[in-house]
Amino acid sequence: KRGRPKRMPFFLFVIFVLMVSINDVRETVLAICNKNNYGYISPDDFNLYAEQAQLDVFNEFMDRYNYYINLENQHTSGSDLADLAEGAREDIEMFMTGGPLTFDAVGGIYALFNAPDNWYHINVLTYTGGTSPAEIAKGSRLDITRLSNSNLTAPTTTYPMYVMSAQDSPNRLNGTIAIVPSTIQASVESIYIRYPLTPSWNYVTLTSGEPVFNAATSQDFEVAADQESKLVDKILEKAGLSIREPEVYKTAAVNDNQQQ
Predict the structure, then answer these.
(1) Distance of alpha carbon 156 from its chain centroid, rounded?
(2) Low-confidence ranges of the chain (pLDDT < 70)
(3) CA distances to 84, 105, 123, 219, 257 from 115, in Å
(4) pLDDT value of residue 259
(5) In this predicted structure, what is the pLDDT of residue 145?
(6) What pLDDT, on a 0 to 100 scale, did the predictor assign at position 3?
(7) CA separation, residue 97 to residues 118, 139, 234 (Å)
(8) What is the distance between the alpha carbons of residues 118 and 196, in angstroms, rounded to a whole number?
(9) Which backbone phi and psi does 149 adopt, to 5 degrees?
(10) In a 10 Å sphere around its CB, with 0-12 CB exposed, 13-18 middle and 19+ buried, how is residue 242 labelled?
């Protein structure tokens, strides 16, 4: 699930993109369902489908980017392919963020840091506590163990290394970033791709039996506006399976496939 993409050469900066309104998407989904008498989708069910739909779109961003980069690495790229790779990169950049890591403990040869709570893929780690910033290279535990057995090749504060681990303690619920040498216990900065925020359509009161949208407590989709129709189709796919309306699913699935 985590850490699938290859290292991505991004710079961290703020990108402002017009997001998809969750209320607009819900109104479209309900209108399609009501028009065809497919049944009602409750706010709770809609929020569940919306979260899954956004994750589908997000994962498609990552898969598409990796696909184009792999083609470029195979020297099959041209100007058109470069444009496609750049477009895929721009879709991902809105999820780039960063910040300092929190040290937790020393474990053997490793200094154990808490992974960010919303990380999808760690892009760059930098140790800034030395005479000059040093990028921390990613490796495997086997590689690091072999290198550490020799004074000539052991990682240092100038050439540090790290490995990722799954959750291994109550203090490190989101995984562990294990850094060598273990003397590095502070001044570690991260740049990473985060998961999108969970979309949520919330309401405050019921009017004539219908919930009233509350924009103040709701969360819009965190994808660009040109993805709205894809989100609608994906939500209809999931709703069609739930309410056992094969026509809803088939129509939405066809529309979704045509957009890819």
Answers:
(1) 31
(2) 1-17, 75-84, 166-173, 241-260
(3) 31, 13, 12, 25, 35
(4) 54
(5) 93
(6) 45
(7) 10, 22, 27
(8) 8
(9) -75, -5
(10) middle
Distance CA 49, CA 35 (A): 20
pLDDT at residue 54 in the model = 96
One-letter amino acid of 140: S
pLDDT computed for residue 34 by the predictor = 84
For residues 22 and 30, the answer to whether their CB atoms sit within 8 Å is no
- The answer to whether 128 and 135 have CB atoms below 8 angstroms apart is no
Q: Tell me the pLDDT tens digit for each residue of 93-124.
A: 889 999 999 999 999 999 999 999 889 999 99
Q: What is the pLDDT of residue 246?
A: 54
pLDDT averaged over every residue in the chain: 84
Distances 98 to 36, 77, 142 between C-alpha atoms, Å: 46, 30, 28
Alpha carbons 211 and 191: distance in angstroms, whole number: 40
Q: Judge whether 178 and 166 are in contact, CB under 8 Å.
A: no
3-state SS, the chain, equals CCCCCCCCCCCCCCCCCCECCHHHHHHHHHHHHHHCCCCCCCHHHHHHHHHHHHHHHHHHHHHHHHHHHHHHHCCCCCHHHHHHHHHHHHHHHCCEEEEECEEEEEECCEEEEECCCCEEEEEEEEECCCCCCEECEECCHHHHHHHHCCCCCCCCCCCCEEEEECCCCCCCCCCEEEEECCCCCCCEEEEEEECCCCCECCEEEEECCEEEECHHHCECCCCEHHHHHHHHHHHHHHHHHHCCCHHHHHHHHHHHHHHC
